[in-house]
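As a next step, the fold was encoded as tokens, giving this record:
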Amino acid sequence: MTEKLDYSPGLEGIIAGESAISRIDADRNRLIIRGYDLVDLAQGASYEEVAYLLLYGDLPSASQLQQLEEEIRSQRTVPQEIMDMLAQAPASLHPMALLRTGVSALAFEDAEAAENAHDANVRKAIRLIAKIPTIITAGYRLACGDDPVAPDDSLNQAANLLYMLRGSPAESYESESMNVSLILYAEHGFNASTFTARVVASTTSDLHAAVTAAVGALAGPLHGGANEKAMEMLLEIGDVDKGKQFVLDALEQKRKIMGFGHREYKKGDSRVPIMKQLAETIASAIGDRHWLELGDVVENTMMEEKKIIPNVDYPCGYTYYMMKIPIPLYTPIFVSSRVAGWSAHVIEQHDGNRIIRPDHIYTGPERLVFKDLKERA
């Protein structure tokens, strides 16, 4: 039996690589992206500026930002073959499964799909950033029996996503809130989906393959799907006055409370206060604080009982719900943001590649004696 001296379940605390893209400052509850505090980016930038920062290494000038915005807006249309595939998919399919297939299929139509050179990867990343919201919204509308809504090239990423989903322009407070939420989700170090993308890229597989794998990793409820599960939990509770007892019963039953806890943050997730402020903005605009109040009851009970703090997925769930975004789209919208971070990591991996191949501890039997088939019971 191999000694387990250096084994860390889930690779917790294990350094798996180097990156110049982001770091989590757990002591100060900060996420740093290319040297910039995420809080500052969320308060002052557009998602497109953050995408530029991730892909190019620094914030853009006005002309550079305009060029990126024009490139994104010109690339939003999805090939008809993929739209036909979306139309033929079973309506019961989860949007993440449809998106995973759609991202993979985009490679069929991309002339640079097999190219791993730096500049080619950047161009492909921009095309994915542009097209993924179209796949998300078209797929969902088709599943609901509605026609897809063509992109509006006059709108930024956040406003266009909401427009394609609804077929009508979003209120300014909605598009501004969506813009901030996209920034909050754009990048987060060597998380499960990003690490998945880097592992795939390390084999010198292409960007589309790596992002497709990342979508699969993000779909799990212990990762990106947590925002959906958190809102489903709040809906299950329903009434504010039932919140505390629900949590107490769940804890007694060893039931996981979704949207709470984070391996990297022990003192607080800096994204949470920003997302909660978005929730306040939406609640004030619609004149309904029910979900904020219920959310606070659950959060306060978790702190009282377990000293466990929420992560960004928890307030995201009820923020999106108040914006009337369908719950199955919460994680796909996460993808529409995180694709910029994934792409930055794939580019970085390709630029200085060494295949990722960790060791493992064998726990199976030893020294078994082979018997011929006729001798086996």
Q: What stands out?
A: DSSP finds 16 helices and three strands in the chain.
